[in-house]
Amino acid sequence: MRSNDSLPHNLKLLCSMHSSVSDVCRRIGMNRQQFNKYLSGESLPSAHNLRRIALYFDVASDELFLPAAEFNTRHGGRIARPDPQKGDAFSRIMAQAFPGDLRRLRPLLGFYHSYFLVPHSPKSIVRALLCLEENDGRVYSKDIERSSIGTSIRQRGYLSKYDGIVSYLGNCIFILEFESLTADTLTETILFPSYRKRLDILTGMTLGVTSRVHRQPFSSLIAWKYLGQNIDMRRALSQCGSLAESDRSIDPNIRAFLLSGDQPTSMSFDPRDH
């Protein structure tokens, strides 16, 4: 039986970086009363619960039993989550809503090509380049979109750049983006993550307002195809633009999803299955 001398201290340190112990228990899916016993040193977690706790805090199970001083050295420098009860209203909202479950967001970091239908032009699909990156305990998105009026293959027109912030809440990924060039548009995208270890394609729905002249609200099915964490940026950008729906460079699974007209549910698929 391992000593529980250091476990309460180490758990309290990790919990202090979150909004509350109740929030930690809710996200782990653990009874608060039982978790309190671990915090007080009254009892030790079972092997199963220990794995759940370690997985949530992104530490090794054995590290939770390290001497307090050593644990502080390894993990004391983590970014503390803002207290949602303090600060102005905006800060409270941001602290509660973002990043959500950071542990589940981290495997999604990297570059993607995103695909969605051009508003009012059902035969054209936009391919954009985006990146998810972590900074100071939150996950941010950067999105570069080339699109045009018309349906010519690889036709390019105006350029849009979006900066966004990402949250994993419940079983969904939420991305709220601001168009940084014109500073006149917000978009929201909701994706449904795959529970597979390998991520290839994420699907969901995006909602926004058309840029430039028309300024019409629109929604579209959207699919993200994972490219990796280190890519040839020039090549990836050169592949972006408005594509004809028959363009063979579009993954056939993505094309079928976008043109199906179905509303996304908890759908997320792996092209290896098709």
SSE topology sketch:
Blueprint: H1 7-15, H2 21-28, H3 32-40, H4 47-57, H5 68-75, H6 89-97, H7 102-105, E1 110-118, E2 121-135, E3 138-147, E4 158-169, E5 172-179, E6 186-192, E7 201-209, E8 217-228, H8 233-238, E9 241-244, H9 252-260
Antiparallel strand pairs: 1-2, 1-8, 2-3, 2-9, 3-4, 4-5, 5-6, 6-7, 7-8
Helix pairs in contact: 1-5
Radius of gyration: 22 Å
Counting structural domains, the number is 2
Low-pLDDT windows of residues: 149-156, 264-274
How large is the count of helical segments? 9
Strand content: 25-35%
DSSP helix fraction: 25-40%
Explain briefly what this protein structure is.
The protein is an alpha+beta fold and 274 residues long. The chain has helices at residues 7-15, 21-28, 32-40, 47-57, 68-75, 89-97, 102-105, 233-238, 252-260; strands at residues 110-118, 121-135, 138-147, 158-169, 172-179, 186-192, 201-209, 217-228, 241-244. The protein contains nine helices and nine strands.
Task: Give a description of the structure.
The chain is of the alpha+beta class and 274 residues long. The protein has 2 domains: 7-88, 434 Repressor (Amino-terminal Domain) (Orthogonal Bundle); 104-273, Beta Barrel (Lipocalin), CATH 2.40.128. The chain has 9 helices and 9 strands. It has helices at residues 7-15, 21-28, 32-40, 47-57, 68-75, 89-97, 102-105, 233-238, 252-260; strands at residues 110-118, 121-135, 138-147, 158-169, 172-179, 186-192, 201-209, 217-228, 241-244. An 8-stranded antiparallel beta barrel has the order 1-2-3-4-5-6-7-8. The termini are far apart.
